[in-house]
Amino acid sequence: MENKKKYVVEYDRPNCIGAGACTAASPKFWKMNYDRDGKADLIGGNEKEDTTAVIEISEEDFEEMKASAEICPVNVIRIKKKENNEKII
Ligand code: SF4
User: How many distinct structural domains can be found in the chain?
Assistant: First the structure.
């Protein structure tokens, strides 16, 4: 089957301020980690503290992820095209 993961999402977790907007925009990908430090975790990504988490997403999830990236007040959610590393947000 063709690999349909067209985008790479990088989440700069250390600089998340715990505003929670991403979880409202995209509960599929984000959850708040109130047990640890009150920052958001990228579901399916590397959830260790103080690292950048990375996942790949498909076209069908792009708009939802883009909405969470746009609403983040500190711009720690970034999306690139996988094929050429072109920065989208
Ligand atoms: S919107 Fe941005 S700052 Fe707020 S919890 Fe999500 S990633 Fe962190």
Answer: 1
